[in-house]
Amino acid sequence: MLSSSFTSKRHSMNVMNKKILALLLSGACLALVSCSSKTPTAPADRQAPNKAEPAVKPAADEPKVLLPPSPGISQRPAVREFIADMSRKHGFSTAELTRAFDEAGIVPSILDAMAKPYEAKPWHAYRKLFLTEKRINGGREFMSLNAAALAKAKSRYGVPPEMVTAIIGVESAYGFRPGKYRVIDSLSTLAFDYPRRASFFRSELEQFLLLCREEGMDYLTPLGSYAGAMGMPQFMPSSYRKLAADGDGDGKRDIWNNPADAIASVANYFAKNGWHSGEPIAVPARISGDGYQSVVSTKNPKPTHTLGQLASLGVTPEEPVSGGQKAGLVQLAGETGPDYWITFHNFSVIMRYNHSPLYAMAAYELTREW
Hints:
This protein has about 375 residues and is α+β, with helices and mostly antiparallel strands. The protein has a domain at about 280-350: Lysozyme. It is built from 15 helices and seven strands. The strands form two sheets. Strands 4-6-7-3-5 form a five-stranded mixed sheet. A hairpin with a 4-residue loop joins strand 6 (about 330-335) and strand 7. Helix 8 packs across helix 12 (about 260-270). The longest helix has about 35 residues, at about 1-35. The radius of gyration is 31 Å and the shape is globular. The N and C termini lie far apart (about 100 Å). The model is unreliable at about 1-55 (pLDDT under 50).
């Protein structure tokens, strides 16, 4: 009995060992097959070089589109009134707009952004947002890639390539950050949940719907900023309808994807707002005494004085200025004290794009880097 039992056990162990061996061999074969099916990786010194990346690009973790948490505002009384107005004034289908606002919604983060705009920062902090190495290099790259379109715009509108490029750089990082909100959500949020400027944004929402109808765009497709500004130049809908331009003659005004159209649109905007070709924009100022206080501004430096008049008040340019243009004086908050700049008519034209001297100065300083 003992011998028979031992024999039986040894037989069982042999069978088990064979099964284990078979399983191990099978696993090894599978591993070999798996390895052989992968594409071989070239040694580090033989890999193809990466394509050059743009100097300014979106952050990898940025969502492409920010959708409202709870869409569907068509039954709000104010929205229903707006839809009725659009139908009466412009012949829109009530059912069509109701379907659009069934998909539109209020985005709380837009209201948060409106409460703390970049322009509320002091100049020395605001400047650092835009006068970066990446944005400066991105501008050089943009001008190189779009030299022909920029030259054409200068010839047609009289606006230099550096100025157009700076605006597109400040507004959308040369098209890489044109906005991630649906425009209908941005404008609806501000038209119906932002009482302080509801009238303005309701008008822009009206212009947006008209624009979509004219350009054959779906109401829910265009993307823009939290304030409803669109494309590379960040045009509001009213500006798009009036001033967007076809830069390459293809019959379209695509400011999202076509740099030629974006360039022509910015140049046209400046030309229509009175840009004076060849005239200065601003120069650093030297201050003495306290007479300058009667003309200095921190918000809207109006070019109403001659350089001689400013000099009599203790304000002189630190750089040569040609011509007899009228000038103003702006004070900005520098890191170690006030910065003073003498500003001219063209500085005021930049401020028509964005009503902030910080914005105008950031755009101008970018042009000085190229």
